[in-house]
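@channel sequence for tomorrow's demo:
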Amino acid sequence: MVAVLGPGPIPALSLNGAAIASFIATGTAVIPGFIYTKHKYKKEPLNPTAWEFDGHTVLEILKIGLPSFIQQMLVSMGYAFIIVFVNRYGAAATAAFGIASRIDSLVAMPAMAVMMAVSAMTAQNIGAGKLQRIKEIMKYGIIINIPVILIISVLCILIPQDIMRIFVGEGDVIQTGAAYLKIVGPGYLFFTVFYVSNGIINGAGKTITTMVISFISLCLIRIPLAGYLSQHSALGLNGIWLAIVISFAATTLNSLLYNFFGNWKKDMHLSSTDVYPCRQEDTVPSLKNQD
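structure tokens (generated this afternoon):
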């Protein structure tokens, strides 16, 4: 904000200021991380001149990382297609969707943070052979997600206009955005589950699966349904919002189906009951009781 507006002696740099501020913020985050890593691993110092190429390691990184990269591309592509449909309803609809999408991102942030933690914990416990802990990882991941997302979802239903007024003052934009929040707001509750479920799948190394789930949700459900409902039904613009919620539900369903019945357990010679035991006596002690 300082670089953009230029208060006092600081020159106003407008959009260039936003780019410079982003660069500074990124550097500020990277440098402390590098310093911490250097001190944490003193016995194995980071020495680029001593690095050697390991083809197997590179392939493993690509195997896990490339599907995640494609998944993010699908998300961006899905947004681009949806904005095309929204643009047909005028500038107010476009502005409202842009603001509402930022709200979507804010709501997703805590769920994504939990997903990353769940993914790391799942990988650690699979590596340690403590597979029955995965049940509790999923349970507590969902429990952690619920309070924040539930509150936001309720606020979107009860006071959508007030939320939109935080970002914009134009009446048409507020009303269109409020309609979005009323329809999509309840769908935020799906975030509490599918981000955790996807985290477990990713932690098991099955990032291709979450990529396929995203492809189905975005390319086979959200985009076609948004186009159809907005152009060939009485719902109009609200049909696009409804398609987004339906895609959330589809993502959740597909993720849970693979989580409970998918081949990631078969690859490790497990059954669903090995990971999600049905009887109390089948489970290991609670995570909080573990060393």
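heads up for whoever presents: DSSP finds twelve helices and no strands in the chain.
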